[in-house]
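Next up, a chain.

===
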Amino acid sequence: MAALAAALTTGLLLVLATAPAKADTDSADAAALVNLYTSWNSPSQLTGWSAGGGDPCGAGWQGVTCTGAGVTEM
């Protein structure tokens, strides 16, 4: 019985670990990044960034690191 429980637990953890993450960036973080981007006159070096908004964490904006929905590094 213990082996079955361990196998089920391992299987569940594998499924959860490989499930795609939904990355909707916190709206305040996204708005702050858009304001920063536009104040810099939308530099072309920042690939993936958009003055029209978007999802910095989900779209992989260059130089932006997220944990969950929050921007944690630039």
In short: The chain has one domain: 21-73.
